[in-house]
Structures are given as C-alpha cells and as structure tokens.
C-alpha cells in the first residue's frame, strides 16, 4: 500500500510534537546561560518561530538543531544583556524560577541551577558559560558542543576546563536541602524578633547580603559585607517584617520565601549556605523579577504563546 504524502497540517503537527518534547531542555539551556526566565522564554519563542520556517525535511537531528539554535541565540542575548546591565542600579541577581513542578528545568542534573552558582557564571564570558552549561548540566559531548559553538573540540575542552577552574575558585560547598531549609527558617525567625546574636551565629564570617531592586525604594544599592553588618541589616527595619505574610516557595531547587504585604508580593528571599553557615543572602525586590518568578509557576509547554516581556 502506497504511503500518502504528508499534508502541511500533519507536518506542522509533527513540528509541534518535536518542539514540545524538547522545550524543557531548550528553556533549561537558555535560562542557565542568561540567568533570566523572561529572556529565556523569549529565546525559546524565537527558536520556535525559526523551527516553523526551517525546511525540517533536511534536518537530521531536531534535538541538535534546536539546541544549537537556542544556545547561539542565548549567547547573543547574553552579550547584549551585559551592556544593558551596566546601567543597572545596585546588585544584579539572576531571576529565580519556581522549580516545584519542573525540578531540573530540563537538565539531566541540577548543575548550574542554584542562584549562587548562576551568579558566579555571570563572571564567565557568554561562550564560556554556554560551554560549561552544555557539558556540566546537560552532559553534551565535547564534539557536540564544538558543533554548536562552531569551535574545535580541543578549544571546547580548554574552555570548559578554564570555566571549571574559575568556578571552583569561587564556589563553596553546599548543604543538603533539609539543612538549607532549617537555616533559612532560623534566619527569618531571628530577623523577625530582632535577635542579632542568633543571626550572627547562623552566618559565616564573610557573609554577604545582596539586594536586587534596580532603584526600588528601600533596596540596598551596594553589597553588605561581614557577619555583623549583615545581621544588623536584617534587623534594622522592624517594619519590614511587621505584618508580613511569609510563604514558602521552591526556587531553583531550594526552599525560599516570598514575602507578601496586603496581599501583594513585595520581596523574595533565599540563601546560600555551607558548613560554615549562611554565606550569601539574596533579596529580590525588583517587581519585574518577582512577577517573573510567580509567572514561572505556570510556565507552559505550549509553544504557541507570545514571547515574554522584559
């Protein structure tokens, strides 16, 4: 029996099916390279549009084609984002994302997902970041990464090795999920009651508090350094905690808090901790990033929605 030729509708249905299956991976790559869920969604949407326009009959591996398109576009966006962030007011932090429904955000393992590591990744060039993410989070082979980045495999090995060395010098050991949650809850409890001594006991000697507000009133515009200063900052404004509704959320694979006031989300708080205690406090007050986090809860696998907004 002769096979009937594919109709345009069936061909598009196949394109949608392939893309929906690969979309979590594509978003995971773009998010880790960019540190922004909104920008990652824009990248994935643009890749979908390109996929529609592509002559898919000549594509041998859709996964390779779509991963390459996503990575290259994310690198381009990262390069322009670096210029835009030069005018950012105060510390810039990656956008947290809700991982309660999609714990690995398309990764084979959760590497390069915690906010602390995403922040360190920002110190690498976009190409170094992409090579590291593809290798460490998604287990791509060096030859595959070389094809994606249009470099030699030897060069890719050097880039990944250099990125590992840089990150190992910046990274610290981390605690397990249960201890992370315990430390976060203890920190908030002590901060709400003004217990500076208990706060200092939870903090590492070189603790740093970073607040991302981009000029929002009340957001610290410089990093706060040292155990004593961080503890004092957390208790300096009692009205910040008074009447606040604290709700536990899962962000980037770790327990975090969303703070509501009068029913409106006003702040996102999380920590990075090692056996020495809490060494990083992250406060996100930027309304756009808070909205992006709440929006990431309902991030759909639909490829037909419009792109995100910055």
UniProtKB/TrEMBL annotation:
Pfam families (UniProt xref): Sigma70_r2, Sigma70_r4_2
Gene Ontology biological-process annotations: DNA-templated transcription initiation
Superkingdom per UniProt: Bacteria
Domain RNA polymerase sigma-70 region: from-to ranges: 21-78
Domain RNA polymerase sigma factor 70 region 4 type: 116-167
Name listed for the protein in its UniProt record: RNA polymerase sigma factor
InterPro entries per record: ECF_Sigma-70_Domain, NTF2-like_dom_sf, RNA_pol_sigma-70_dom, RNA_pol_sigma-70_ECF, RNA_pol_sigma70_r2, RNA_pol_sigma70_r4_t2, RNA_pol_sigma_r2, RNA_pol_sigma_r3/r4-like
Subunit comment: Interacts transiently with the RNA polymerase catalytic core formed by RpoA, RpoB, RpoC and RpoZ (2 alpha, 1 beta, 1 beta' and 1 omega subunit) to form the RNA polymerase holoenzyme that can initiate transcription.
Entry keyword annotation includes Transcription regulation: yes
Keyword Acyltransferase assigned: no
Family: Belongs to the sigma-70 factor family. ECF subfamily.
Keywords noted in UniProt: Sigma factor, Transcription, Transcription regulation
GO MF: DNA binding; sigma factor activity
């Amino acid at each position: 029996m002769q096979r009937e030729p594919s109709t345009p509708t069936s061909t598009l249905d196949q394109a949608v099916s392939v893309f929906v299956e690969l979309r979590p991976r594509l978003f995971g790559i773009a998010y880790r390279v960019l540190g922004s869920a909104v920008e990652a969604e824009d990248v994935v949407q643009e890749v979908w549009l390109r996929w529609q326009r592509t002559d898919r009959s000549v594509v041998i591996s859709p996964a390779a084609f779509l991963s390459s398109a996503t990575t290259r576009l994310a690198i381009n966006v990262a390069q322009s984002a670096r210029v835009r962030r030069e005018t950012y007011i105060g510390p810039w932090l990656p956008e947290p994302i809700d991982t309660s429904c999609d714990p690995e955000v398309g990764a084979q393992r959760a590497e390069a997902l915690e906010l602390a590591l995403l922040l360190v990744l920002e110190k690498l060039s976009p190409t170094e970041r992409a090579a590291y993410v593809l290798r460490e989070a998604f287990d791509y082979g060096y030859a595959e990464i070389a094809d994606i980045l249009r470099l030699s495999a030897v060069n890719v090995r050097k880039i990944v090795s250099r990125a590992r060395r840089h990150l190992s010098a910046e990274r610290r050991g981390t605690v397990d999920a249960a201890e992370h949650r315990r430390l976060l809850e203890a920190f908030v409890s002590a901060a709400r009651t003004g217990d500076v001594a208990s706060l200092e006991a939870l903090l590492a000697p070189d603790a740093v508090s970073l607040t991302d507000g981009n000029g929002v009133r009340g957001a610290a515009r410089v990093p706060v350094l040292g155990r004593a200063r961080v503890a004092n900052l957390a208790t300096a404004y009692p009205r910040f905690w008074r009447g606040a509704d604290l709700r536990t959320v899962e962000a980037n694979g770790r327990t975090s808090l969303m703070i509501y006031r009068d029913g409106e989300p006003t702040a996102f708080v999380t920590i990075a901790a090692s056996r020495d205690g809490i060494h990083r406090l992250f406060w996100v007050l930027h309304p756009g990033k808070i909205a992006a986090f709440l929006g990431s809860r309902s991030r759909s696998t639909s490829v037909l929605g419009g792109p995100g907004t910055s």
